[in-house]
Amino acid sequence: MAPPNVEIYLSSTQCQHPAPYQAFGLTYENFHSLHTAANEAKSRAYCPYSKFRVGAALLISKNSDVEVIAGCNVENAAYPVGTCAERVAFGNAVANGILKPGQQDGGIVKAVAVITDVEVDMEKGTMPASPCGMCRQFIREFCDLNVPIIMFDKNGNYAIMRLEELLPLSFGPENLGVPGPSR
Ligand code: THU
């Protein structure tokens, strides 16, 4: 069974007004571009060992523009060397100068999306996959604790939670005297 406090929004009810993601400050365009980018990234996953494809996408605002940066999981024959989609996406944003933690001229993460091939089944209580613990900590480095994390299943059904709900009492850059991202 799904934990009682986690709601699943079915793609079949997505014309609902207001849409659930609007409560997290996201527009229809934001939501759909995140879903599309994460899904496309998932199709590029390199996962010959687990065969578990994951795509991630970040909505990053800078001045009045928004950009979507994606990543997929990249596995390795030496298993622990492989990387999750979320960490690839954040690395991509940093390496491309879109996220500059601690600097004034960097972008601000407005939302994170993750998609897998898991299928929500309300009868069986199957939930969309959520970011692993290591990725939650990685996300914490770059995002405000209120940032929404959208967890899509294969069919566009989703759950949405704030980072702090997924990682309460977290440890971050401020604990080491580093300002971290512009929030
Ligand atoms: N994986 C992700 O990409 N993100 C997560 O948050 C959970 C797990 C990947 C790692 C590995 O390539 C595959 O999923 C199976 O664990």
UniProtKB/TrEMBL annotation:
GO BP: nucleobase-containing small molecule metabolic process; pyrimidine-containing compound metabolic process
Gene Ontology molecular function, alphabetical: cytidine deaminase activity; zinc ion binding
Residue span, CMP/dCMP-type deaminase domain: 29-174
Keywords attached to this entry: Hydrolase, Metal-binding, Zinc
Enzyme active site: E86 (proton donor)
Residues given in the record as substrate binding sites: N73, V74, E75, N76, A77, A78, Y79
Similarity comment: Belongs to the cytidine and deoxycytidylate deaminase family.
Protein name, entry field: Cytidine deaminase
